[in-house]
Amino acid sequence: MQSPRVCNSAVIIAAVKNRGLSRGAALIVTFLSLLLCWPASRSEAAGGPTAVQTTLSGVLVDITCATDPKKNPATLRTQHTRKCLLMPVCADSGYGLLTNEDKVLRFDAKGNELAHKLIEKHPEIDSWKISVKGGVEGDHVVVERIRLLK
After folding, report:
1. Mean pLDDT, all residues of the chain
2. pLDDT, tens digit, for every residue of 105-146?
3. CB-neighbour burial class of residue 114 (10 A; exposed 0-12, middle 13-18, buried 19+)
4. Parallel, antiparallel, or unpaired for β 104-107 and 140-148?
5. Residue 88 CA to chain centroid, in angstroms?
6. What pLDDT is stored for residue 52 in this prediction?
7. Which residues lie closer than 8 Å to 10 by C-beta, 6 or more apart?
8. What's the pTM value of the predicted model, to 2 decimals?
9. Which of 11, 21, 103, 127 is 20 to 30 A away from residue 38, measured at CA?
């Protein structure tokens, strides 16, 4: 495991000043230090690769029904229909995975698109047990693939 780099510009400038370098040399060292740190700090600021890649299984749900306090997760697992998943208010809310622990993991835009295509492709199915491969970030999934389970 790599040790973390200190890429704070104030720390770099203070370290250069304490070295007793000439002004020109200090500028060059500071510039090069910041340049070397820039890609690391930029990827960290952009969120970087923080998602844990995994494959999950559960039931495909729409966010409207899954977050409705009147709905029982056990009922959603067994009685949530294709018709409901395609209703505009439900489809527009996005899709997610209802886990066996009754946790709802929301899909990203790609996951919503893949889920909608899956629902459209299978008009005969009303049991939406699926596996999802992707990265989990809190209560969201960055979806790579969705498969229907039998």
Report:
1. 81
2. 999 999 999 999 999 999 988 789 999 999 998 899 999 999
3. buried
4. parallel
5. 24
6. 73
7. none
8. 0.66
9. 21
